[in-house]
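Worked Example 4.2. Read the sequence first, then its structure tokens.
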Amino acid sequence: MINLTCPVCSERLELFEKTYRCSNNHCFDKAKEGYVNLLTGNHKDGSLIGDNREMAQSRKAFLEKGYFDSLKNYLSSYIKENTAENAVVADICCGEGYYSHCIKAETGREICGFDISKEMVRLAAKRKNEGTYFVANLSKIPLAEGSVDFAFHLFAPFHEKEISRILKDDGVVITVVAGENHLFELKELLYDTPYKNDGNPPATENLKLIHKENITTNVLLQSAEDIDALFRMTPYYYHTKPEDKAKLSGVDKLEVTLDFAVHCFQK
């Protein structure tokens, strides 16, 4: 069972028709798409932080073409084989819900997902897969302590304290970072001296590394639109000079290495 907590007072949230309410009467309405915004303070609107609508739509269109299916299939298989049928699975920084949607369909597990981008969460909720989606900050996840059996966390900042808090005893989190050769061909186009990633797991004191492996494959990006969409999904997009970004102009096909460094931690 998904156990949401109030972002104001940390009491449990109960759903009454279309409103989540805690015992202190803090209320949060569900949007028409089915998600709830649990951001508070200056960022409670949720529309000015995280990826915007254009970027969310671009990411959704790219992933649904199947380029990252090797990672999706791995996650689905791992969760199905290593969790009970009634397990609660959390998609941390869920984006537009591609992975959680596929995992729900293939495993039947109870899914929840959150992101700081309201546009991403809106798209995730529109998938109508019976998952619970909410807008929230990774530094203060509105889930009850010890309420999650399994979590996964892909290409996002790692907040060990919060992830550890929401996991049950012996709960597991998979975190995925860029492997050594991830998108190296893209970097060869962009930079004069492309570098390889270290692929190392995030530092942690409370979680034990129980398994690691790399999922490596090559895919052919079929259009300039797909190349641009993938580029925008990477941190390189925000740190690349305009003159280097221009090097992608006119490139309409590109074979790239996908190198996903998978690390499994247990509480």
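Now turn to a second chain, presented in exactly the same format:
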Amino acid sequence: MSTNTMTTTQKVEVTDELVRFARSTAFETLPDTIVEVSKRNVIDALACAFAGTRSDRGEISTRVATRLGGPAEASVIGTGAKIACVNAAFANSELMNALDYDATPHSPPNIVPPLLAAAEMRGASGRELITSLAVAHETAWRLYSAMSSFMSSYVEKGTSPTVFGNSNEAVLGAAFGAGRMFGLDPARLANAVGLTAYFCSLPVGKDWHTTPPPKPMVKYAPTGWLSKAALTAVLLAEEGMTGHGAVLDSEYGFWRFYGAARWDPDSVLDGLGERWVSGAYHFKPYPCCRFFHSQIDCFLSLLRESELQPEEIESVESLSMPFAANPDQMSVSTQSDAQFSLPYNLAVAAYGIPVGPQWQALETRQDPRIRAFMKKVSFGVHPQAQRTKAEDPRSWLASVTLKARGRTYTSEVRYARGTPVPGYALSEQEMTAKFVDSAQLCIGREQALRAVERLWQLEKIDNVAEIMGEIAP
């Protein structure tokens, strides 16, 4: 039964069932939609990593990971370095999340890097990578839904809960996926998951949310640490180290020591392997918090339709979901500040700054035009946004009103671009453009075009190490 309490005599079930699911899932059994979203997750995550090479956090992380070094097992995106798989996973994860350009929910930076590093090290095929990614994401989503109250708190109260992570629990999905790729037997895979649970970072989201600018680089979850933790746990379990092999079933297990407000184990297993829940990723067209995207869409549509110049705009009023991740959105000094300031992102959009790393570049943050435009922006809660979100969790209801030329211009949207609903999901062409625009910063446009063409055919690649050699030579 579904419950928020556990007894010591309850039959061990969740961990064992997830282990069986991870080991028994085959590429041939995956729905086409899951194969497609798995490939999109790889393409998008790599695009974010290439863009992240132009971030302060990405540069620091790659320097440290390269310094730690190790055997040439896996590639660090955009650098040409090959280092120990766990260190490559750490660096690539930090790169992917550095600009907040990665898909939501934010599990890809916790899952793609360790599985990509494992696949490269082991010479796994594209099909094996896709299958392991599918297992990892499906497990992560089910665990997230069974425990999380982050978004429900926003919908119901307009605030974040006192204790929450931000897809930290995806680290368990990464362990299931990586353990599958390593071919761990049931006992070793359960041990890997138990070790990973103990390695999981604390749910620090609320502390980070309430910290005023300058915001810490590590943000709402240490994605690099989580990626390294999952892969390290799998390596340890392979060698025989034991962990709590029933960590998802005990009275004081993961859900409780993680600080989850609820635990519904039945929902984790409901339809497992038959009904896939992890296909609805929101891929981002802009490098900033997802809460702002529908507002940016409204704003840009008004600029296009009216052909307004930023200097003509007298004021901007933007309304959407309540937002609590930055107590001072008018103060922007760091890249993290920029990612969580609506006035800043609307100002950057107004002046047509190219989408990508340039949105958060130092010269953009210090541009006096951007600073001046930010003062024109006011923001608040759309009166219907929370109700609409409760009706359809995919919605991001927003409205933007501009005053210019003695007139008032208004736009409203229910969904943001990149939402997995007809008419809003990013097309293959748009995702290809995001990859190429980011990758060409490191490997040139022609090589980026060749690489993304192969990635769209990932299931036909015999050895992932070959494509990684093209992406990160």
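Notes for the reader: The beta strands are 74-75, 82-83, 313-320, 377-381, 398-404, 407-413. The first helix runs from residue 14 to 24.
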